[in-house]
């Protein structure tokens, strides 16, 4: 007989990382492919993770003075045409509405009718439509700054899609601000990068590098793009958030102008910044293992699942009464300002199957409770960041008293593991041949997980971009933290002041 698999997820990360990722999503019941090409259905467990992300980020935005609003899904094509570099950057990804009704066709089907006077673009990003509104709202320096965020969906017609990471339609937030001076706008751009880094590290338990993009990696039409970059378990980089200083490019195109304090007419300085459901993909790939999803406690849909175990009606009544009492006590505990999220799973299915469902869904803590546990005023406790076999009897009172400590220990452990992986797979490289060797798999026919982050001197030069494309590499960012370290570009020999992070990327 074939040997039983040792893990819940097949293939494993080492065997086929892309397929492992898809299988984790399926096993954790996070999302599934929709009938619409390139789009996904986010299921309740996956939605709960995104909802928790939204809640935290929304609070962080409001703490920094931003307000929520909403702008149209459809953008007149002429709006995009006003900013040439912007439209060029998104043109190939735009979905376009050209008609406004359907009529019966000659063969019994439906055909588009009622051609629009001007095509409408389904929102790929909102700089142009929001800029048109800001132009109406701003007349004086007293009207500035405008600090607005919107939660929305966007459409970018991707050819190669992967759930959460790259889909034709995805969910995000996009902040758009307008300021009287360049200094204020640049400070806003940097502030929001710090907000994203804080969220990634302290809620997602995902260590990130904060840095500036090269000229060819900037957001189309921006003067400066900052990003946070994270290493996934296959050692590829994931851009997890971006913040853009747009200068006056969009305000001149959209005529966002105001009378200054000195009485002169000036154009506003604008920014935009955003993160998306791609963060759910980043969470999966940063922490999950070959048994399924591992969810950081601060974003987990449930912090603990209580699993009653009994053999007959008498035991059932005793165990469930005990579980109900424990449930109430745990919900009375606050974890980072909100009640502990408890799930009681009394479904009539086999205990082993039930346990493995919650392992695959990444619930941080599992507590099995049978008649012996009731008699001993205890639970049989397991942590998702440890082996499924690592369970221990824990007094009920101790669990209630220490559950927040346990959750914080899991949160810290996940962050430390991810940071250790990044540190162990980062290299300082000064020669082009060493860079090529670092990113060359030993087996070209079936590439193993290899490479990582390479810290190199790299000039902001179009010739460098072309060379990197040949190697299927990208400059992720030029880190903003740390000291200057003058050197020479490994591609062109040009002088540079800081090292850049080069990696394969999603």
From TrEMBL:
- Keyword terms of this UniProt record: Aminoacyl-tRNA synthetase, ATP-binding, Cytoplasm, Ligase, Nucleotide-binding, Protein biosynthesis
What InterPro entries does its record include?
aa-tRNA-synt_IIb, aa-tRNA-synth_II, aa-tRNA-synth_II/BPL/LPL, Anticodon-bd, Anticodon-bd_dom_sf, Pro-tRNA-ligase_IIa_arc-type, Pro-tRNA_ligase_II_C, Pro-tRNA_synth_II
PROSITE patterns per the record? AA_TRNA_LIGASE_II
Q: Could you tell me the EC number(s) of this protein?
A: 6.1.1.15
Q: Name one GO molecular function term.
A: proline-tRNA ligase activity
Is RNA-binding among this UniProt entry's keywords? no
Gene Ontology cellular-component terms for this entry are: aminoacyl-tRNA synthetase multienzyme complex; cytoplasm
Q: Which Pfam families match?
A: HGTP_anticodon (PF03129), ProRS-C_1 (PF09180), tRNA-synt_2b (PF00587)
Q: Domain of life, per the record?
A: Bacteria
GO BP: any one term: prolyl-tRNA aminoacylation
Chemical reaction(s) catalysed: tRNA(Pro) + L-proline + ATP = L-prolyl-tRNA(Pro) + AMP + diphosphate
From the Swiss-Prot or TrEMBL record, state where the protein is found.
Cytoplasm
- Principal localisation: cytoplasm
**Domain Aminoacyl-transfer RNA synthetases class-II family profile, first and last residues per copy:** 46-296
Give the residue range of the signal peptide: none
Which family, according to the similarity comment? Belongs to the class-II aminoacyl-tRNA synthetase family. ProS type 3 subfamily.
Q: Which PANTHER family match?
A: BIFUNCTIONAL GLUTAMATE_PROLINE--TRNA LIGASE, PROLYL-TRNA SYNTHETASE
Protein purpose: Catalyzes the attachment of proline to tRNA(Pro) in a two-step reaction: proline is first activated by ATP to form Pro-AMP and then transferred to the acceptor end of tRNA(Pro).
* Description of its domains: Consists of three domains: the N-terminal catalytic domain, the anticodon-binding domain and the C-terminal extension.
Q: How does it assemble?
A: Homodimer.
What is the name of the protein in this document? Answer: Proline--tRNA ligase
The gene coding this protein? proS
């Amino acid at each position: 007989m074939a040997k039983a698999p040792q893990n819940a997820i097949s293939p494993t990360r080492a065997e086929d990382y892309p397929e492992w990722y898809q299988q984790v999503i399926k096993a954790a019941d996070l999302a599934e492919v929709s009938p619409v090409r390139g789009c996904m259905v986010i299921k309740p467990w996956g939605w709960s993770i995104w909802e928790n992300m939204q809640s935290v980020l929304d609070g962080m935005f409001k703490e920094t003075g931003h307000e929520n609003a909403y702008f149209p899904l459809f953008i007149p094509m002429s709006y995009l045409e006003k900013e040439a570099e912007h439209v060029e950057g998104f043109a190939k990804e735009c979905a376009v509405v050209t008609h406004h009704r359907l009529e019966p066709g000659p063969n019994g089907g439906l055909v588009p009718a009622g051609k629009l006077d001007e095509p409408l673009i389904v929102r790929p990003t909102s700089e142009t439509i929001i800029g048109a509104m800001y132009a109406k709202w701003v007349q004086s320096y007293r009207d500035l700054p405008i600090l607005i965020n919107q939660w929305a969906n966007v459409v970018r017609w991707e050819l190669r899609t992967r759930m959460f990471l790259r889909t034709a339609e995805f969910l995000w937030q996009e902040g758009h601000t307008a300021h009287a001076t360049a200094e204020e706008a640049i400070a806003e751009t940097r502030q929001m990068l710090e907000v994203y880094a804080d969220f990634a590290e302290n809620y997602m338990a995902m260590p990130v590098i904060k840095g500036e993009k090269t000229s060819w990696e900037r957001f189309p039409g921006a003067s400066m793009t900052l990003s946070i970059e994270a290493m996934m378990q296959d050692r590829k980089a994931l851009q997890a958030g971006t913040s853009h200083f747009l200068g006056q490019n969009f305000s001149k195109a959209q005529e966002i102008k105001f009378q200054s304090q000195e009485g002169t007419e000036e154009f506003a300085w604008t920014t935009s910044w955003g993160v998306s459901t791609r963060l759910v993909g980043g969470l999966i790939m940063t922490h999950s293992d070959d048994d399924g999803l591992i969810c950081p406690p601060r974003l987990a849909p449930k912090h603990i699942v209580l699993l009653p175990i009994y053999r007959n009606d008498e035991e059932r009544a005793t165990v469930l009464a005990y579980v109900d009492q424990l449930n109430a006590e745990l919900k009375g505990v606050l974890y980072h300002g909100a009640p502990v999220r408890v799930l009681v799973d009394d479904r009539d299915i086999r205990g082993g199957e039930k346990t493995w469902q919650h392992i695959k869904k990444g619930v941080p803590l599992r507590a099995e409770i049978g008649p012996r546990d009731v008699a001993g005023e205890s639970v049989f406790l397991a942590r998702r960041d440890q082996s499924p076999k690592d369970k221990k009897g824990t007094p009920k009172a101790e669990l209630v008293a220490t559950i927040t400590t346990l959750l914080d220990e899991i949160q810290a452990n996940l962050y430390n593991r991810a940071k250790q992986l990044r540190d162990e797979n980062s290299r300082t490289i000064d020669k082009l041949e060493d860079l090529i060797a670092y990113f060359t798999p030993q087996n070209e026919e079936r590439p193993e997980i290899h490479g990582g982050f390479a810290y190199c001197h790299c000039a902001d030069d179009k010739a460098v971009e072309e060379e990197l494309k040949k190697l299927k590499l990208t400059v992720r960012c030029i880190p903003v933290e740390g000291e200057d370290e003058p050197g020479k570009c490994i591609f062109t020999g040009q002088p540079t002041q800081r090292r850049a992070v080069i990696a394969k990327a999603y």
